[in-house]
Amino acid sequence: MKGFGDKKKSKKKILNEFQIKQYHNQIMLRAFKYHSEGNISEAKKSYQYLIKEGFKDIRVFNNYGMILLNSGDLRQARIFISKVIELNPKDEVAYSNLGGILKELGELKDAELLIRKAIELNPKNSTAYSNLGGILQDLGELKEAEICTRKAIELNPYFATAYLNLGIIFKKSDKLTEAEIYTRKAIELNPKISEAHSNLGGILRDLGKLKEAEICTRKAIELNPNSATAYLNLGIIFTKSDKLTEAEIYTRKAIELNPKISEAHSNLGGILRDLGKLKEAEIYTRKAIELNPNFANAYLNLGRILYDLGKLKESELILLKAIELNPDLAAAYYSLSNIGELNNQKKWIDYLFTEDLLERQDDINKIDIYFARANILERKSNYIQSANMLRKANNLNRKLYGSNYIKIKNLMKNYYQIWQGIKANKELPENQLTSIFIVGLPRSGKTITESILACNKSVLQCGEDKALSIAVNKYLNPKENHNNQDLYQIYIANITKEISGKSFICSTIPNNFIYTGLIATQIPNSKIIFCFRNPLDNIKEMYSAHFGEKFTFTTSIVESAKFLLSINELMEEYKKIFSSKIFFLNYDELILNPEQELKSLLSWLGWEYEQKYLHPKLDPTTYMRSDKQNSLLNKKHQNIWKHYKELLKPAIEVFKESSKYKHFIS
């Protein structure tokens, strides 16, 4: 009887195990059904129950792992996809999936090994080759990445993602034409890949096709409104288009969608810096570094911001950190070369002058290196070699960006005619804010003049605020000026800083001089201060400045000399017409006889002279050439041109033809 009872109990246990297995199979099939129908929530619950009950089936682990992967839970996904490989060491798909997870986790070498194992198990797996190409690309092995991605395309000529990846590889290799071709092919094969449209926008942006780049990036956002990368790219496009307000909006949107993109925080910091919001710029750039402590470009941006804030020593330390992280970061060397005296900096200066550093740069970055070398050489009084570096920098800049000499000359003529065809605005009340426009060539003393005026607490210091150019474009375009506003109203509306509590608005954009006629006739209580200096000093200083795509006429000594004559002639003509509206400020006299020149300027503005105007808070670009901060410039950069006579010979020849300027070259 005892034996019979044991047999009966054993049979009952087997029956229960069989029933449990059947029950688990039913739950698994139900989970598969939920999964296939897109009911992920219920599928997930079912998979979790089975795993908790100890149910071991490759499909359950794989499917649950993929749900976790798609939800962004990479670390948990890794655990369950690893279980699949444990249960079936020949599951090539699992190796490929696990490799993708490790790639996202930044474990690139381990990811590479897993993807190579997937390829070993199935040499015809085009997806695995494409994924391996992506990993090798992230490891910086672009040539091998290209080979693997081309193999993926060979195995599957209709593989849109592989074409997309090949486009990314070519973009990283600075082969933008090829990058555009393959990215367009990806879009042709699958027009709904948001990332492809976004990447094409980035490529077109780098090719200078900004309008087309914007269209592509907006298409990416249309396909995926939650694409932080697309918003980030759109912000970069607007930054390059000099539309900083829009750039700020879209970069903030990228951060809202994904607060962990360090590049977005760094870019926003750069935009805010350009908008003059330095404190906020510092906060966002420090956040970028917090998110990615190895982000060399974020350190570069922070170094520039600290420089603008006048924190030169801290700026230097941060910039040195940038080149520690990326010894080939050309822009960091240029920024360092602008900082004061040289103290314990021999190591980076030595590397700056090596051919090894130069050979690692593309043409755009070589410009930074040449200008940096010129700055160091001038500080060491090696003017001949400094001039040689300036020639190299400016010739390369001109090769890349051309010259805007003819364009600006035409604008001067056009706007001179435009203001004459518009009636003077006499309707606005006289209690409007006084708008002061400080104009003149770059490096003619505009910034220091604004700093002096800002000693008056009623002055809003706007720097290079683009409000006037935006206002003029809207004012003259009926389609833009919907409410038929006057120029003053549009101008005030586009000032980026807080105006309340101020009586004077001051800006220093050099090109504002082309709008002189419109300013004088359409903006009430407007004042124009035209800054000028020794023309040869001015031309040399412009030639030494790194303007990039701006003021490209300065890359030619001859064009700078001719332009200087043209702007002086134009402003003298305007002075005859609007004598009470325009003040000619002599920068050299401001340095030699500051009190006399300031009394004349302040009297013209209707202000009382006070000693405080002799001690302005100077911009770093100004006081880096001073003996000390918060004092007017010293005289060491007056007549600097005499050290560069050979370089300036073409300008000297131009001035020989003008009796008015002959005394400058004697």
Overall shape: elongated
Strand content: under 5%
Examine the secondary-structure arrangement and name the CATH architecture of the domain at 429-541 and 573-665.
Answer: 3-Layer(aba) Sandwich
Number-wise, the strands total: 5
Mean pLDDT, all residues: 89
Report the helical percentage: 55-70%
Distance between the termini: 131 Å
Structure description:
The chain has a domain at 429-541 and 573-665: 3-Layer(aba) Sandwich (Rossmann fold). It contains 34 helices and 5 strands. The chain has helices spanning 2-37, 40-52, 58-70, 74-87, 92-104, 108-121, 126-138, 142-155, 160-172, 176-189, 194-206, 210-223, 228-240, 244-257, 262-274, 278-291, 296-308, 312-325, 330-337, 346-352, 355-359, 363-379, 383-401, 405-420, 446-453, 467-475, 487-493, 516-522, 535-544, 557-577, 587-592, 594-605, 620-623, 649-656; strands spanning 434-439, 459-461, 504-507, 526-532, 582-586.
In short:
64% of the residues lie in helices and 4% in strands. The longest helix is centred in the first third of the chain and has 36 residues, at 2-37. The protein has helices at 2-37, 40-52, 58-70, 74-87, 92-104, 108-121, 126-138, 142-155, 160-172, 176-189, 194-206, 210-223, 228-240, 244-257, 262-274, 278-291, 296-308, 312-325, 330-337, 346-352, 355-359, 363-379, 383-401, 405-420, 446-453, 467-475, 487-493, 516-522, 535-544, 557-577, 587-592, 594-605, 620-623, 649-656; strands at residues 434-439, 459-461, 504-507, 526-532, 582-586.
